[in-house]
Amino acid sequence: MRTPNELIDVDRPAWPELSADIDAAALPVEVPPVDPALAGASLPQSQVTARS
């Protein structure tokens, strides 16, 4: 099982690309704020990297 730091620390995180897509969207897109407690608990459970 990978640690949260291993899941976050990737060469090419997806957020910059997602953010550009959101900015270019034809319809309004709302991105809710991060809940650090929820993120800290769900990231290790999901084992999804920041690139995914």
TrEMBL record:
Entries under InterPro entries matching the protein: DUF2625
Protein name, as recorded: DUF2625 domain-containing protein
Upper lineage: Bacteria, Bacillati, Actinomycetota, Actinomycetes, Kitasatosporales
Organism: Streptomyces virginiae
